[in-house]
C-alpha cells in the first residue's frame, strides 16, 4: 500500500467492509462516518470464508478490507490476493501486545509490511466443562476419553483438522506437525462412541453446553465467554489442561481494493483502545492489547469477571502455542484422518 502517513490527508468517498464480527465493524463504520462525513461506508457480514474468497477469485469486487483467520490469510497470500499493510505507519499498532503481533510478523509478513492486522484471539480447543458436575477444572485431555462421561460429551469439529489437533494434544504430539497420524486416527475412533455428536456450528454447540445437553467437550474460549456474559450461563467454564492447547488470532486483511486511504485510516481506528473496549463489550472475546486490565476497566459496561477471563495470565499463555496455517502435507493428512474417523 502506497501510504505515506496515517491518518491520510485525503480520503476516497467510500469504504466497503466484509467481516463476521458484524456488530463491531458496524460500530466502527458509524464512528468512521462521524470522523469523515464525506465518506459512505458499507458493511457486509458473511458466515463462510469461501464467500469472500470467491469474490476475490472473480477479480470483480469492491471489497476494501476483510475479517478472517490465519489459514485463509495464507491462502490469500498464495493466490496473490492480499496487499502488505505498512504497520509501521499505523500509530495504533503500538497498542498491540507483541505476544500476538510476533506470530504475524514471523509468518504472515513481506518486505513492506504485514498481510494481516490482529484484533482478537481465543483458545481452541479449550476444555469446556459444567462446573456443577466437577469440583475442580479437569486437568487433562484424558477426561474426553473417559467412559464415565459417555453420551454427555461433544467436541467441536467445524474444520477437518480440529479433531486431529485435539488428538495430537491428547497423545503428546505437536498439533502443528504430528509425527504419528495413525495414532491420531486410532484415538479419535476410540473416542467417537463416547460422544453425542461433533459440533460444526458455533452457536448451536455453545447452546448445547448452556442447555446442559452436554457437560464436557471443546469449544473456543471466546464462545464460552459469550455463554457466561451474554446468556448468564455461569455453570459453563473453560480451562487449559496440563498438556496445553492452542490459540488462534482473528485478523483483518486488505485485498487490492478501490479505497486504500479509507482502509488504512479505518484499520488505525479499529486498533484504538476505544475500539477494543467496544469489541469486548459487544463480542466478549480477548483483544490483543497492552495493559489489558487497565484499559478495559475504563469502560463501566465491561464486567470485572469478563476482564479477568480475557486477561490470560502467564500460566495460561505459557501453555499455549499458536494455531497457524498448516503446511499442505499436514493438512492433507489431517483430512485423511478425519475422513476415516467419520466413516468408522
Which labels suit this protein?
single chain, 344 residues, alpha/beta, D-Maltodextrin-Binding Protein, domain 2, 5-stranded mixed beta sheet, 11 strands
Under CATH, the topology of the largest domain can be stated as D-Maltodextrin-Binding Protein, domain 2
- Unreliable spans: none
Cα-atom radius of gyration: 20 Å
Helix run count: 14
CATH superfamily of the largest domain: Periplasmic binding protein-like II
Query: Regarding CATH, which class of the largest domain?
Result: Alpha Beta
How many DSSP-defined strands? 11
Shape: globular
CATH architecture assignment name of the largest domain: 3-Layer(aba) Sandwich
Mean pLDDT: 96
How would you spell out the order of helices and strands? EHEHEHHEEEHHEHEHEEHHHHHEH
How many domains in all?
2
- Describe the sheet with the most strands: 6 strands, mixed
Percentage of helical residues?
Answer: 40-55%
Structural summary, described in words:
It is built from 14 helices and eleven strands. It has 344 residues and is of the alpha/beta class. It folds into two domains: 14-122 and 248-320, Periplasmic binding protein-like II (D-Maltodextrin-Binding Protein, domain 2); 123-247 and 324-343, Periplasmic binding protein-like II (D-Maltodextrin-Binding Protein, domain 2, 3-Layer(aba) Sandwich). Strand 1, helix 1 and strand 2 form a beta-alpha-beta unit. The N and C termini lie far apart (50 Å).
Amino acid at each position: 500500500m502506497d501510504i505515506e502517513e496515517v491518518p491520510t490527508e485525503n480520503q476516497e468517498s467510500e469504504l466497503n467492509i466484509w467481516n463476521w464480527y458484524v456488530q463491531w465493524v458496524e460500530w466502527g463504520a458509524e464512528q468512521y462516518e462521524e470522523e469523515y462525513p464525506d465518506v459512505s461506508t458499507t458493511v457486509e457480514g458473511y458466515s463462510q470464508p469461501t464467500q469472500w474468497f470467491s469474490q476475490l477469485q472473480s477479480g470483480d469486487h469492491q471489497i476494501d478490507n476483510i475479517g478472517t483467520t490465519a489459514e485463509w490469510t495464507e491462502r490469500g497470500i498464495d493466490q496473490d490476493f492480499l496487499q502488505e499493510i505498512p504497520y509501521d505507519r499505523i500509530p495504533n499498532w503500538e497498542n498491540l501486545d507483541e505476544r500476538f503481533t510476533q506470530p504475524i510478523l514471523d509468518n504472515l509478513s513481506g518486505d513492506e509490511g504485514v498481510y494481516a492486522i490482529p484484533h482478537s484471539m481465543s483458545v481452541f480447543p479449550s476444555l469446556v466443562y459444567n462446573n456443577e458436575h466437577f469440583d475442580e477444572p479437569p486437568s487433562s485431555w484424558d477426561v474426553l476419553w473417559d467412559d464415565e462421561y459417555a453420551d454427555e460429551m461433544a467436541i467441536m469439529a467445524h474444520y477437518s483438522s480440529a479433531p486431529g489437533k485435539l488428538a495430537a494434544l491428547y497423545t503428546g504430539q505437536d498439533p502443528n506437525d504430528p509425527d504419528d497420524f495413525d495414532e491420531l486416527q486410532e484415538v479419535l475412533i476410540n473416542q467417537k462412541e463416547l460422544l453425542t455428536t461433533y459440533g460444526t456450528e458455533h452457536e448451536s454447540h455453545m447452546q448445547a453446553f448452556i442447555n446442559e445437553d452436554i457437560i464436557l467437550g471443546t469449544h473456543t474460549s471466546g464462545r464460552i465467554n459469550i455463554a457466561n456474559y451474554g446468556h448468564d450461563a455461569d455453570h459453563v467454564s473453560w480451562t487449559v489442561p496440563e498438556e496445553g492447547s492452542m490459540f488462534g488470532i482473528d485478523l483483518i486483511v486488505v485485498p487490492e481494493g478501490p479505497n486504500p486511504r479509507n482502509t488504512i485510516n479505518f484499520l488505525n481506528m479499529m486498533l484504538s483502545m476505544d475500539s477494543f473496549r467496544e469489541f469486548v463489550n459487544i463480542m466478549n472475546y480477548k483483544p490483543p492489547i497492552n495493559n489489558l486490565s487497565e484499559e478495559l476497566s475504563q469502560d463501566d459496561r465491561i464486567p470485572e469477571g469478563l476482564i479477568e477471563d480475557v486477561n490470560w495470565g502467564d500460566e495460561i499463555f505459557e501453555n499455549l502455542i499458536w494455531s497457524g496455517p498448516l503446511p499442505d502435507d499436514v493438512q492433507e493428512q489431517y483430512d485423511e484422518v478425519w475422513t476415516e474417523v467419520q466413516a468408522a
